[in-house]
Write a structure and sequence with these properties.
This protein has one helix and six strands; from the N terminus they run ββββββα. It is mainly beta.
């Protein structure tokens, strides 16, 4: 039987719904839709293969300034995404490398959105 009691969460980290701008390598213009300590979900028009590693920058407001954190992330899976006025791809990215300072920024951002 499939239902709420039989569902087993496989994620290690709680995800938070956020909509933030994201920049990666030479390709610009992705949007971040959810975020956790382990990774993120993005939407982009760029077609990229699973397992590709990307250097990402996530932008967010910190008080009255624009802040960012950087990380290297690997594409874990991708899917086609279509809305009424937009078509592209959604990607789940897993963090591969993130500095202690940027991890602190990420954790602070998650705490502010919880």
């Amino acid at each position: 039987m499939y239902g709420p009691k039989s569902f087993k969460e496989r994620r290690k980290h709680l995800r938070f719904q956020v909509v933030l701008p994201l920049d990666f390598e030479e390709i610009h213009g992705a949007v971040l839709y959810n975020l956790s300590e382990g990774g993120l979900l993005i939407h982009s028009v760029q077609d990229m293969p699973v397992s590709r590693e990307l250097r990402v920058r996530v932008f967010f407001a910190e008080e009255y300034e624009l802040a960012q954190f950087r990380a290297t992330a690997r594409i874990a899976w991708k899917g086609y995404h279509s809305e009424s006025d937009w078509e592209g791809y959604k990607y789940a990215l897993e963090f591969v490398e993130i500095s202690p300072e940027d991890r602190r920024k990420l954790v602070n951002l998650l705490e502010e959105n919880s």
